[in-house]
């Protein structure tokens, strides 16, 4: 097993950070690159915005912003021309919802495993347009991806206009078969919106192969960039109709598709500019091997937790990446457990609820050790015995 690299991160040494899925940790050297870009801005803001970030006022995009865009596009196998930098997936999905035109009785189809704010976004959109949001119930435990696709597709009707789906669900941490859904949707003329908030940097992404109309993901989770770094990729067939969420001078200058959607007035772009540094850090520290080792350990502990709580596992390993949801005892008081873990053991862990089921979401990254997962299990056992 590769050596632990906790010292490469800025995390407080006195805490046990087992919730990388909510907010990822940024390595020291990537954070230094981030701060360097901020210093460059402050030395001469005019030079930074009008010369160094070329393309903001000209017709030809070039410079460090485009280098970061190209590096990210290459990493996820996407067309860089359709790549928009955005602060987070929530903003990206609001931009998509703002731009898509719905009419009365149009249907937006989702699962009941989607992130709450995303459901709220589309519920409001549907209410404003007399459209219908349908959440397909996906029971646990899930069976096979093929059965999931067939079952979900049976809910499609002639009124289905949009499919909104997580690539990796938030509470239950399931990797959904979005490629197969997108393939069927393209043949049927249905718009696909994929919420990949947890995907980039956690699983191998091939956006050309997935072929979604809209795909968005947070780089500040598993790609290890500073907070406020995400992207939205818009399929070539959707770009002409896609409207900016914020109207700025780019609406007049039209420098490029990406910059038309990124220019929000004065804005710090430093987090996006250090995407190449995050990619270099991952390469230097053999991240593919670290992924493989982390997953093996996570799967082992997921089973230990399920046995301890006398709960069935919600899926087999084919549904999992580097986070895993485990059902807690039904009587668990979520806030009390979360508070106990922090106050008594300095453990940061994601404890949530799906339907009526209490869930703890395990995550494991290169700065973690098996002892921390053991500590988490022991701490929950102590809490139950109070």
What does it look like?
The chain is an alpha/beta fold. It folds into two domains: 6-26 and 286-384, Aspartate Aminotransferase, domain 1 (Alpha-Beta Complex); 32-280, Type I PLP-dependent aspartate aminotransferase-like (Major domain) (Aspartate Aminotransferase, domain 2, 3-Layer(aba) Sandwich), CATH 3.40.640.10. Helix content is 41%, strand content 15%. It has 15 helices and eleven strands. The strands form two sheets. It has a seven-stranded mixed sheet with strand order 2-8-7-6-5-3-4, with helices on both faces.
How many structural domains can be distinguished in the coordinates? 2
Unreliable residue stretches: none
Annotation field: number of helices: 15
Cα-atom radius of gyration: 21 Å
Q: Tell me about the biggest sheet?
A: 7 strands, mixed
CATH domain topology of the largest domain: Aspartate Aminotransferase, domain 2
Secondary-structure element pattern, one letter each: EHHHEHEHEHEHEHEEHHHHHEHEEH
Find the count of extended strands (DSSP E, 2+ residues): 11
What tags apply to this protein structure?
386 residues, alpha/beta, Aspartate Aminotransferase, domain 1, Aspartate Aminotransferase, domain 2, seven-stranded mixed sheet, four-stranded mixed sheet, 11 strands, 41% helix, 15% strand, globular
């Amino acid at each position: 097993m590769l050596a632990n690299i906790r010292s490469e991160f800025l995390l407080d040494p006195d805490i046990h950070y087992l919730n990388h899925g909510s907010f990822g940790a940024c390595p020291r050297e990537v954070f230094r690159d981030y701060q360097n870009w901020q210093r460059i801005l402050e030395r001469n803001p005019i030079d930074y915005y009008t010369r160094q970030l070329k393309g903001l006022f000209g017709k030809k995009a070039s410079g460090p912003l485009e280098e970061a865009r190209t590096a990210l596009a290459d990493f996820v196998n996407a067309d860089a021309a359709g790549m928009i930098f955005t602060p987070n997936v929530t903003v990206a999905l609001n931009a998509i919802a703002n731009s898509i035109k719905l009419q009365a009785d149009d249907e937006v189809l989702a699962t009941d495993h989607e992130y709450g704010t995303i459901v709220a976004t589309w519920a409001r959109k549907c209410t404003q347009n007399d459209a219908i949001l349908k959440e397909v119930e996906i029971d646990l435990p899930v069976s096979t991806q093929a059965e999931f696709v067939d079952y979900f597709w049976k809910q499609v009707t002639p009124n289905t206009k949009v499919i909104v789906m997580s690539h990796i669900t938030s509470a239950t941490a399931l990797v959904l078969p979005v490629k197969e859904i997108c393939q069927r949707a393209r043949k049927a003329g249905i718009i696909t919106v994929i919420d990949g908030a947890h995907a980039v940097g956690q699983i191998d992404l091939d956006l050309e192969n997935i072929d979604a109309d809209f795909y968005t993901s947070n780089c500040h989770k598993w790609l290890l960039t500073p907070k406020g770094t995400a992207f939205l990729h818009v399929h070539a067939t959707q770009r002409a109709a896609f409207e900016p969420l914020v109207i700025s001078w780019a609406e007049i200058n039209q420098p490029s598709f990406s910059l038309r959607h990124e220019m929000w007035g004065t804005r710090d772009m430093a987090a996006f500019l250090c995407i190449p540094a995050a990619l270099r850090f991952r390469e230097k520290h053999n991240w593919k091997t670290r992924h493989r080792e982390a997953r093996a350990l996570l799967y082992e502990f997921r089973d230990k937790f399920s046995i301890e709580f006398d709960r069935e596992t919600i899926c087999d390993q084919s549904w999992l990446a580097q986070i895993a949801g485990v059902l807690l005892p039904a009587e668990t008081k979520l806030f009390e457990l979360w508070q106990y873990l922090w106050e008594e053991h300095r453990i940061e862990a994601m404890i949530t609820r799906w339907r009526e089921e209490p869930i703890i979401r395990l995550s494991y990254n290169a700065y973690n050790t098996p002892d921390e997962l053991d500590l988490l299990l022991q701490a929950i056992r102590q809490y139950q015995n109070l």
